[in-house]
Amino acid sequence: MIEVADLGGDGDTRPTRALVLHPEIRGDPRRREAEAALAEAMALAQALPGIDLIDGQIVRLPRAHPGKLFGSGKLEELKGRIEEDEIELVLIDGPVSPVQQRNLERDWKVKLLDRTGLILEIFADRARTREGVLQVELAALSYQRTRLVRAWTHLERQRGGLGFVGGPGETQIEADRRAIDTQIVRLRRKLDKVVRTRELHRAARRRVPYPIVALVGYTNAGKSTLFNRMTGAQVLAKDMLFATLDPTMRAVTLPGGLQVILSDTVGFISDLPTQLVAAFRATLEEVLEADLIVHVRDIAHPESEAQAADVEAILADLGVADATARIEVWNKADLLPVDDPQLTVAARREGVFVASALTGQGLEAVFAAITETLDEARTTAELELAYDQGRARAWLHEQGVVQAEEPGEAGMRVSVNWTTTQRRRFEAILAAEEAEAEGPQSSS
User: Fold this and answer.
1) Residue-number span of the structural domain to which 282 is assigned
2) Which of 174, 197, 220 is the endpoint of a domain?
């Protein structure tokens, strides 16, 4: 949490007065619609505790000044506003180089965070699981290492807000770099242990005869509200960016009787810091292993199409295969007028369902589509299982896919009629059994 005390105050913990600036740089190929981008940046600022958001402003620039981002005239104009409104923290919606950050802080006599720094602050505040905390700290250290025109006094903390505060100065750069590298090595060792534990959990889930359904979408699209309605869980669901950070999974029985494992994931966002994409890859592995991805969109948002494109780009970066089954839920339909043209567009698109997770409108069709998608076409196969592969044979019987079986010289010959998902899970069970059998031999 950013507080006045963190910014060099006298211990007063009143909210920090903040101003959001969205630089609109002419000719920037990544430029988004300025008003919508500013609104999202202000929502990000409001998602961070301890912030008293005074205002937001679009700053139109012909180009980015290499040393101070803004030209001299605009610098003086903004400085006057900062002093008049007694601003203590400036949040810039975009990338700011270390040199630009240092110069702006000196000129304006305030603390400054760019978009990446702000998102890291939010993630640091929201992480709850051991893995989430470690991933946030690793991402923050990777970010800080590139910004050693300043010093970082929070490196001794085990947890808490990142607190981007000033330190001893540039003479400590080498010491800071060594301290950061030491911390990164320590965190990676801890994270490796956590990841290995998660892999054991995933291996156990592969032996569970339920397909995995992953809810993905832009942050604040309504994934957690949909998750709560489907599971009866009490996951934090607020009209707030990044209300969900750590993944949550529940076993769910759909109205048609199909049992699935439902996963609620962290929301995506445009210009997601590259450090977070890498650090949170393990958290998003539920998406990589999902049998079905449900893309939840906030259809009432003016930038819904752009948000959907950002989600698809991040899924591609994560390595989600195009062959993975997907459906789209155009959520928050209760906020649209009945004659909205988007409703007509949705009706013409295959795999798109208009719904409201808040009111329950349209969810019957969503549940039916999930059931239909996962109730795949079946194929027959002839298997030969060794007599000591009892776990795999028992799993086949639990699935109800065994049509006939008879004993042979080397093992049981089993005829099955199964889906592609069941075949994949059966192969995972065999691989797990083989690994367990080889374990004692390799250790000896």
Assistant:
1) 208-374
2) 197
Determine, yes or no, domain membership for 96: yes
DSSP 273-309: -HHHHHHTTTTTHHHHT-SEEEEEEETTSTTHHHHHH
How many helices, marked H, and strands, marked E, lie in the chain? 14, 13
Instruction: Name the pTM for this structure.
Output: 0.68
Are residues 146 and 270 both part of a single domain?
no
Q: What are phi and psi of 77, to 5 degrees?
A: -60, -45
Alpha helices in 47-129 (DSSP H): 72-84, 98-108, 115-126
Give yes or no: residues 168 and 23 share one domain: no
Per-residue pLDDT of the chain (444 residues; tens, 9 = 90+): 344 334 444 455 788 999 999 999 887 777 778 898 899 899 889 888 889 999 999 999 998 899 999 999 999 999 999 999 999 999 999 889 989 999 999 999 999 999 988 888 888 887 777 777 888 888 888 888 877 754 444 443 333 344 444 444 445 677 788 888 899 899 889 888 887 877 776 666 655 567 889 999 998 898 888 988 888 755 445 555 554 555 677 888 888 777 888 888 777 777 777 667 665 665 676 777 788 999 999 999 988 998 999 888 888 877 787 778 899 999 999 999 988 888 888 888 989 999 999 999 999 999 999 988 887 667 889 999 988 888 888 888 877 788 899 998 888 999 998 877 778 888 888 888 777 777 655 444
| CATH number, domain containing residue 389 | 3.30.70.240
The structural domain count of the chain equals: 4
Note whether 218 and 356 are same-domain residues. Answer: yes
